[in-house]
Amino acid sequence: MEKKSTDGISAHTAVAPDEVDPNNAGRHSASRFREHEDPGNLAAKEEKSPVRGARELGLEPGSERRKKLERRLKLKLDLRFSIFVVIYSMNYIDRNNAAAARLQGFEEDLHLKGTEFQTLLSILYVGYILFQVPSNMVLNKIGRPSYYIPAAMVIWGMISVLTGITTNFVGALLTRLFLGMVEAAFLPGALFILSKWYKKDELSLRYTILYCGNLISNAFGSLIAAGVLRNMKGVLGHAAWRWLFYIEGAITMFVALIAIFMLPDFPHNSRGFSAEERQLAQLRMLEDTGEVDVDSREDKWYAGFVMALTDWKIYILMLSLTACVTGLSFNIYFPTLTKTLGYGTTPTLLLAAPPWVFSCIVALLNSIHSDRTKEKFWHSTWPLVMGMIGFIISMATQHRAARYFALFLQAGSYAGYMYTWMSSSFPRPPAKRAVALAFMNAMSQTGNIAGSYIWPSKYGPSYTKSYGIVLAMFGTTILLNVWFRFILVSANKRLEQGERAFGEHGDTLEQAANLESTTVRDAKEMQRGFRFLI
Fold first, then answer.
1. Listed residue (115, 360, 79) closest to 219, CA to CA
2. Closest to 478 in 3D by CA, of 407, 392, 363, 384
3. CA–CA gap between residue 332 and residue 38 (Å, rounded)
4. What percentage of the chain carries pLDDT values higher than 70?
């Protein structure tokens, strides 16, 4: 897969590692980027720096200067991305506050009948599904997350406030639909942004910290709801559930203003980083997969969409994630499930918080160990098994203490969410990764639509049938993950065989080293860098 560059040197066209022909593994490099570089373009000049090579920059792996600068860069990134936890909390709180409002007259005031409440929950995911892929394509194109994400937050915060003034089913239905459309910008966008800055063996912890925003929203969202529903009833003539939407929507808009100044953009154009830090950030991505994390200027705007949807691996993970999301649908009804313990509204909401604190701790420990071992399958599987045990306990007994213990196990199953595995399985180019992450996450939300109807009141208070359905969904997820792991193991073996064959061509390695301004040894190390995480 070669073509002549303008200076007559044979250059290797860069390809995403998961698209590499195993017989030609290792040929992907940053040279494609060099061929299309525009010397008069400032962004191109910024993006050029990492392909100069670690040795030329004085940032060889293992050097004290490199270690010191890398620690400083990651600390700065971790601090600035910490706002994602708060944003995700508000994203989920604004999405799920209808469940808490239901405890204080939401259905009665809007005159909801039959399955209309379930329809309000599920309609959000229609907009959420339809807009995730276009949103990530736009984000990748404009390259300014620090403006894009906060703008979406302001809009969905306003929509949340408007939900509080609705008086009937149609009004609530429209606000929920539009809320899903705008909230679609955040999660796939956040996953994509993090993958632009962190290496494969650093992403599990960062994705889990991000996802803790979801878990925290379940814990502290219940506490906020308890306070508002208890103390704001009748204030200024408004029902307490209406104040819940007003207050939480206003908090979202306030957080958006902070996010404008905290969020980084992409490594080549972000504010608040020195030129050396931006160079190192891009160099880290180059070393992680053997390719600069930029799109070819020759690619059409829809190229990432085509590349993602023609990679059949995406559909296996999509089905697995959909089954997993369906199994996790108990989250939407967690206040209702907690109420089956037999307590009043305020104690119920307070009791709903501790299981999610436990879940957050389990998820963090699980991700730290996953990053250290670079293993994904077992770290995605055992939390699901823990959740399945919780489902079985809830099906088998009405004992109050046992059912509350089961809620802890069920909440802990969130630690098995496989966002890192998704990202590392579709690493390059960025346009493809942006679409792949958004597409898998969007399609998996059909599980939330189905999940909205798994927990009807007629199945309560035991919800045995509901637990049986989610138990089957977790089992399906595990089986699909076994299949996906087998596929990646086979792919890694083919990549290894291809690299061994390619490594025999010393003249080709020398040309690659010249293009990368590095040594033959460093070029060889870079080319053998990518493996699918299993």
1. 360
2. 384
3. 50
4. 79
| Three-class HEC string of 433-491 | HHHHHHHHHHHHCHHHHHHCCCCCHHHCCCCHHHHHHHHHHHHHHHHHHHHHHHHHHHH
- Yes or no: say if 491 and 334 are a contact pair by the CB < 8 Å rule: no
Measured CA to CA, the distance from residue 219 to residue 82 in angstroms comes to 18
Structure tokens at 299: 């690619």
Note whether 247 and 64 are within 8 A (CB): no
Q: Which of 487, 488, 496 is nearest to 527 (CA)?
A: 496
DSSP letters, 188-228, are HHHHHHHHHHS-HHHHHHHHHHHHHHHHHHHHHHHHHHHHH
Residue 10: phi, psi to the nearest 5? -70, 120
Q: 32, 286 in Cβ contact below 8 A?
A: no
Residue 242 pLDDT level (bands cut at 50, 70, 90):
very high
Q: Say how far apart CA 274 and CA 385 lie, in whole Å.
A: 46
Q: Report the distance separating Cα 128 and Cα 288, nearest Å.
A: 32
Place of tokens 């098995």: 416
At 499-518, the pLDDT tens digits run 666 555 555 445 444 433 44
Looking at residue 442, its pLDDT comes to: 87
Domains and CATH numbers, the chain: 82-274+286-490 (1.20.1250.20)
Separation between Cα atoms, residue 160 and residue 218, nearest integer Å = 17
Place of tokens 């009948």: 113
Which residues are within 8 A (CB) of 203 and not within 5 positions of it... i.e. 6 or more apart?
A: 194, 195, 371, 420, 423, 424
Among the listed residues 217, 100, 86, 236, the one whose alpha carbon sits nearest the alpha carbon of residue 163: 100
CA distance 106 to 239: 9
Mean pLDDT highest for which of 153-167, 346-360, 456-470?
A: 153-167
Distance between CA 526 and CA 319 in Å, rounded?
33
SS3 434: helix
**214, 413, 477 from 85: Cα distances, Å:** 8, 19, 26
DSSP of 489-511: HHHHHHHHHHHHHHTT-HHHHHH
Kindly tell me if the per-residue pLDDT of 41 is higher than 50. Answer: no
Query: CA-CA distances (angstroms) from residue 140 to 38, 185, 414, 485?
Result: 19, 12, 28, 29
472: Cβ–Cβ under 8 A, 6 or more apart, which residues?
A: none
Indicate whether this model's pTM tops 0.85.
no
Torsions phi, psi of 12, nearest 5?
-100, 125
Residue 21 CB neighbours (<10 A)? 12
pLDDT band at 301 (very low <50, low <70, confident <90, very high): low
